[in-house]
Amino acid sequence: MELKLMMEKLGAPQTHLGLKSMIKEVDEDFDGQLSFREFLLIFHKAAAGELQEDSGLMALAKLSEIDVAQEGVKGAKDFFEAKVQALSCASKFEAELKAEQDERKQEEEKRRLRQAAFRELKAAFST
């Protein structure tokens, strides 16, 4: 799911089967998930020319790379700082959503407890 969201945010959405084939291409321990080491392997394989040009992994590598010789060190610094800023904004948004969900869960639990207490009082007065 994280890979799917990342690819969508980078502007290169993938199908479920496409994502599975991307993972399979670098999944060294065959657990169906990408570890950090396997994620870095994507960029190693891209640099070595071991990825197919039309693969989702090559799209990921191209979207995440910068040519320091062309852009210069300052350009690369700006590129990565912009990426970090974008990720932190997304994280803040996700944190806000999680907080709202937690608040709703707490309110729902309080409502259930109040209903249970009311039922107990009602039963006490009904007998």
TrEMBL record:
The keyword Cell wall biogenesis/degradation does not apply. This is EF-hand domain-containing protein D1. Residues 14-49 form the EF-hand domain. InterPro entries: EF-hand-dom_pair, EF_hand_dom, EFHD1/2. GO terms for cellular component: mitochondrial inner membrane. Keywords: Calcium, Metal-binding, Repeat. GO terms for molecular function: calcium ion binding; calcium ion sensor activity. The keyword Lipoprotein does not apply. It comes from Puma concolor (Mountain lion).
